[in-house]
């Protein structure tokens, strides 16, 4: 099963994509009906997309802060820290094995 936070983020991105497509479709219809000009439609589309991108960035920033806060409260270990500890343990085990061989040989 995928990470629920990742699924939530993808759902938000999908919703923004659908919203953009629907807006573009509506603008195209208005141009076809002669209710707005092509240049007006382009301007509205650019404004909406710019606004959505800004909101998406805000959303990602806030979500990142929430995730970081939750991870800290749960004492969650970052993958990088975990991998570094694994390497250290492996090195220590290797050194211990060498020490045992040396002690046995004496």
Sheet having the most strands: none
Fraction of helical residues: over 70%
Poorly predicted residue ranges = none
SSE class? mainly alpha
From the N-terminal CA to the C-terminal CA, the straight-line distance is: 53 Å
Radius of gyration, CA atoms, in whole angstroms:
27 Å
Oligomer: single chain
Q: What is the overall shape? A: rod-shaped
Mean pLDDT: 83
Q: How would you sum up this structure, described in words?
A:
This protein has 106 residues and is mostly helical. The chain has 2 domains: 1-75; 77-106. 87% of the residues lie in helices and 0% in strands. The protein has helices at 4-32, 38-73, 79-105. Helix 1 (4-32) runs antiparallel to helix 2. It is rod-shaped and about 95 Å long. The two termini are 53 Å apart.
Task: Provide keyphrases for this structure.
3 helices, mainly alpha, 2 domains, 87% helix, 106 residues
Secondary-structure map:
Elements: H1 4-32, H2 38-73, H3 79-105
Helix pairs in contact: 1-2
Q: What's the gist of this structure?
A:
The chain is mainly alpha-helical and 106 residues long. The protein contains three helices and no strands.
């Amino acid at each position: 099963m995928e990470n629920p936070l990742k699924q939530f983020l993808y759902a938000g991105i999908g919703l923004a994509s659908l919203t953009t497509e629907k807006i573009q479709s509506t603008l195209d219809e208005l141009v076809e009906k002669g209710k707005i000009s092509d240049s007006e439609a382009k301007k509205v589309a650019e404004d909406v997309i710019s606004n959505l991108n800004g909101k998406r960035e805000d959303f990602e920033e806030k979500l990142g802060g929430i995730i970081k806060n939750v991870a800290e409260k749960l004492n969650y270990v970052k993958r990088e820290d975990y991998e570094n500890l694994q390497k250290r343990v492996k090195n220590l085990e290797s050194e211990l094995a060498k020490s045992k061989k040396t002690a046995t040989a004496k």
